Amino acid sequence: MRLSTRLLILAAILLSLLSFAKFQHCQSIGWAQPGTDVHECYTDISALFHERSLDKGQWVYSSADNAVEYPVLQGTVMWLTAKVAAGDINKYYYINIGLIALLFIGSALVINKLKPELNYLYIFAPTAILALFINWDLWAIITMLLAIYWFDRERYLLSASMISISIATKFFPIVLLFAIAVIFIRNREYRNLIKYFSVTIGLYVLINLPYAITTPQGWWRFFDMNIHRLPDWGSLWLGFEIFKIHISGFNAISLLATLLPIMAALLFLFSTVKILSLAESSIFFLAIVMTFGKVYSPQYVLWLTPLVVIALVNSKEKLSKTLTVFWFWQITEIIYHVAIWTYLSGHGSENHLIPRSTYGLAIFLRFVGIVAMVISLARQHRLESSTSLKKLTATKG
After folding, report:
1. How far is residue 342 from each of residues 6, 36, 45, 128, 338, measured CA to CA in Å?
2. Over the chain, what is the mean pLDDT?
3. Environment class of residue 126 by beta-carbon count within 10 Å: exposed (0-12), middle (13-18) or buried (19+)?
4. Does the pLDDT of residue 391 top 60, yes or no?
5. pLDDT tens, 237-293?
6. Which domain holds residue 185?
7. Is the pLDDT of residue 390 over 80?
8. How many domains, in total, are found in the chain?
9. What's the confidence (pLDDT) of residue 349?
10. Predicted confidence band of residue 315 (pLDDT cuts 50, 70, 90)
11. Which pLDDT score is estimated for 392?
12. For the chain, what is the HEC assignment?
């Protein structure tokens, strides 16, 4: 079932309105805790407005210990929209969710270009309704998708520029450089590899340099927090701690646990008969980083869903099995979404709505869901490569 462009835009608008309705209750209660957790409508947009002095017009990187915990372009968006809101939290919220809704519609149109035959999956994935307005992730997601779109069409300068902007907004897309390197190396396009990486790194440095020079401590806070972060909400590592499994040398172990699957993904991408496109191979690296990272925020599913959709092989024979896994994974994400807000509703008090162990189980269920999804994607590409090899052998025979 493929949606026409008009229906796709209409569906994206409808989904944005449904997500708005989900978050609207929290606006009506003045973003008060624990109501934002109880009604599962917490958003960083309102929470950080006062916490990071955005309501006072303070520059987001001027404080060494209270700068925003995001890369520079997202911080700049937060500051500029706060300036327009002029201290009004509701105005600030509406401005930001309006822009995010537009970005969501735009990302749906990019998905329509990358995977038109499966565009409905991105729109109708229920996790988007739940997580759309939790954070500013769509600013980086759309530029990541544009980088993938232009790379697959060999518009490498545009792609490198977009990936650099995306990294300077949310940093996650840096792992796509692994997939990009594999494609260039397998095609023996070493000159393009050097050019692509040079543009990406050069533009990233150029974007960050003014911030690093003028407010170095505030600029560095994002990196410092992630380097020294302990097991945080949603992470596999917190799940271990909940069940009394303590990891000694956490930072080294978590890094190793991320690097080993990345190496496995690299070996897989180098071994397929068909060279997978960036659109098809990106999901493996992003899923690994988010699965084994120190934190898993509920809105991270917004990154994974479009990449899963564009990685799906559009073959009736293979798609039916993979779609079953897709919906299973989506259900695990929904269960986790409900579990974290239910648990946080009573966190720090005696009014625990669910036991800590139940929240821990939700973490591991989500882990099973995304691992099953990634294995299914890898298997479909492996089968496709085997089929291509058999056809090639038969033709030569």
Report:
1. 37, 10, 20, 19, 6
2. 92
3. middle
4. no
5. 999 999 999 988 898 999 999 999 999 999 999 999 999 999 899 999 999 999 999
6. 5-396
7. no
8. 1
9. 63
10. low
11. 41
12. CCCCHHHHHHHHHHHHHHHHHHHHHHHHCCCCCCHHHHCCCCCHHHHHHHHCCHHHCCCCCCCCCCCCCCCHHHHHHHHHHHHHHCCCHHHHHHHHHHHHHHHHHHHHHHHHHHCHHHHHHHHHCHHHHHHCCCCCCHHHHHHHHHHHHHHHCCCHHHHHHHHHHHHHHHCHHHHHHHHHHHHHHHCCCHHHHHHHHHHHHHHHHHHHHHHHHHCHHHHHHHHHHHHHCCCCCCCHHHHHHHCCCCCCCHHHHHHHHHHHHHHHHHHHHHHCCCCCCHHHHHHHHHHHHHHHCCCCCHHHHHHHHHHHHHHCCCCHHHHHHHHHHHHHHHHHHHHHHHHHHHHHHCCCCCCCCCCHHHHHHHHHHHHHHHHHHHHHHHHHHHHHHHHHHHHHHHHHC
Nearest C-alpha neighbor of 48 from the set 81, 15, 9: 81
**329-338 pLDDT, tens per residue?**
999 999 999 9
Which tokens go with 175? 């792992």
What is d(CA 284, CA 377) in angstroms, rounded to the nearest whole number? 9
125's CB contacts (< 8 A; 6+ apart) are 305, 309, 330
